[in-house]
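Thought: the user wants the 3D structure for the chain below. I'll pass the sequence to the structure tool as-is, report back what it returns, then summarize two notable features.
Action: structure_tool
Action Input:
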Amino acid sequence: MASPEGDSSFGVSRIFGTRSNIGSSRIDRKQLGPHVPSPIWACRSILEPTVQPRRRPDRSKVRVGNRLVRFKKITQVGIKSIYSHGLRSLLTVLGIVIGGAAVIAMLAVSEGASFEAQQQFRDLGANNILLKSVKPAEVEESSNRGFGPPQAIVYGLTLADVETIRNSIPGISNVIASRIVKKNVWHLGRSMNTDVVGTAVDYPTSRNYNLRSGRFFSETEMRDHANVVVLSDEVANALFPIDNPLGLSIKIDSDYYNVIGIMESEGFSNLGQNQAGSSNAAPSRIYIPFTSSKSRFGETTTRQTAGGMERETVQLHEAIIQVDNQESVIEVGEIIEQILARRHKDIDYAIEIPLALLRQAEESALRDQIVAGAIAGISLLVGGIGIMNIMLASVTERTREIGIRRALGAKKRDIITQFLIEAVILSAVGGVIGVVLGIAIPFVISAFWGMTTIVTPVAPLLAFSISALIGVVFGIYPSMRAADMDPVEALRHE
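Observation:
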């Protein structure tokens, strides 16, 4: 009977058991779990010694770590130097702050002014062509000569002009004619001089005007020459400071007109002058049907001038030509100009195309922004020169320090990095403060002066980027000068 020691499989069987034992106990490897090694691997681990290989350190990681430590220390030295010269650093940062704030503020004001100008043209309608009656200079001079009662001056657009344009040019969807007469209007003891605009029912839609309350007059009221009136917000506040004007009446000449609506404030626009001496969007306006204006006031009006009384005969003061296709607006405007040139002996009309004016305004806005940015950029340039001067002075003051660092093993790139870091920190801090101040200034301007200012996301980003770039550009020369110092000569410096 063989002893257990003589059995070569005894060690293995003691560890893992025999097949019969494993089978009888119904234990398989799946039940033992994945942590139980296979028999072959277990034998190998017992019979063969375990040798752990030596791991070599990753040299690339070591180099990166050393560079980070070195950069951290250099940054700490630079920050300490900035704090040790607080007043000098503050004056240096001030130039960058003023420059950055000026860039943002000037761009915001320019953007706001551009937006207002473009909005006026958009309100006129991109598909509209505006025709206006304009008194020729020769006609005005001839009317002032001679004696006796003044002769009526005849000029301007006519109903025949409008009908010819409507019937001759395809693609015109609508034509809205208007007459404007200066009149005194009354309500009880209050009165004011205002523009009485006789126009069509779709006039507010064509000019993108909105009603604050009430309604505009209808086609039926237009056909019946009805005495109805829509007041502008300014006229309503002047004549009815307390009462609601709707349902009440105002007096124009000897007739009373029922107030049916109030137009929202239109603001003021200088887009041309009509013969009545009012702008297209004059705030003090009232609106009546075109037929009522023609039947009540006629075509000949008399007004007081500096030289006496002046009589004018004008059929139409304004006409809005609406075009179906926006792409053909400019072409239609050119055709209208040719038609009016054939029908009128004198140039007693004006043509305005809001779409063309809008494109001109956009181009002008871009030029204005470039000029404003360039002017403000000069301030940043001055701030950059200030940084360079301060850094050069710092190099002179710290000559001995630079020599000691070079003698202790500091490399040229370490010296360059230190001075560049100082310059970038100064410019970055100035840029951040300048951005905050530049964003605040437009809000102050809007709050106290009522100007429209728009701060676009590009402006702060541009101001900060330029500030940081200035720190790098104007910090290169002082850092190179510091790095090129002879350590021996630097140590001798007193």
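Final Answer: Structure generated. The longest helix spans residues 354-397. Residues 66-117+361-492 form one domain.
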